[in-house]
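ok so for the tutorial part 2 we go from a plain amino acid sequence to predicted structure tokens. step 1 is just haveing the sequence, like this:
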Amino acid sequence: MCSKAPKTAAFAPSHRTRCDGEFVLGFAGRLRPEKNVRFLADLEKSLIAAGHTTYRFLICGEGSERAWLEANLQRAQFTGVLRGIPLSRAFADMDLFVFPSKTDTYGNVVQEAMASGVPAVVTSEGGPKFLVRHGLSGFVAPSEREFVEYVLRSLESPAMHSAMRVEARRQALDRSWDAVFETVWEGYSTAVSGPSKIHGTFTAA
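step 2 — the prediction. this is what the tokens look like for a chain of 205 residues:
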């Protein structure tokens, strides 16, 4: 079967370039109101209140909310729109993907983060909640308060976070296009071969 390079190769932990001691909270996507990105400022206030100073936001994307975020986030790097290898490196350089959107039907960026070995915290509204295995490859937060709690837990539990990195990558590999196509192919093969096998067990009346 011929295919393009899978997303699990385009997005992978091997693209990581950082080795500093900061904990990088990542976001990628349109910086628009429907993505609920202003919540990131509330999240930062909670991190500061909890005494955390070695964090940084890495925000990839453009949109009408960028100016507001730049004015209201104290420790954030804005990359604008990235593509290709720069985007792969940005994902791999994150430590935790924070995606507060409540309107996304799927969430490709969540899959790309997980393929990069980055666990994700998402809301319980919209499609991304089906991509994350709660407590294993990230967290699904029913409320903003719990969203903050899961981010703090990730920051404060290095061993748990390391295990989630491994699980996020493993889960993404299981959901690669090649893996999906193989499953579909097996299903079709079973459906095609099944009737003939069943037919062979019967004789005409």
